[in-house]
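Lab notebook, entry 98. We have the chain sequence and a SMILES string for zinc ion, and the next step in the workflow is to get a structural model of the bound complex before anyone spends time on docking refinements. Request logged below.

Task: model protein plus zinc ion, output structure tokens.
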Amino acid sequence: MVIVPCTLASIAAMDRLGTRRVRLLSMPAIVAVNSAALIYYAVARRRLRRTVTAASGAICPRCGYSLIGHDEEALCPECGAPFAREELARLWRGWGYL
Ligand SMILES: [Zn+2]
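Result returned:
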């Protein structure tokens, strides 16, 4: 994710400018990047939860393709993963999305 390049850049900057000075300068950047990553994660999770809820769990867990209108058991037309609707609902419920 975004955090790794930022952390590596911070370490490289510490080598160039001195640890104490850079630590003070880089803390707001690290906090900002981590906050942005957490907000991104929360928004993506909320969006996925809405999609899964609207489809009553009929979403392929591998590719996110909507399986509404497909047979109870078949292969995902997008990625070819086998699915069973009952299994999908149990899976999404277990992950806290349904
Ligand atoms: Zn799929």
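Notes for the group: The chain is about 60% helix and 5% strand. Worth checking against the assay data. The longest strand covers residues 73-75.
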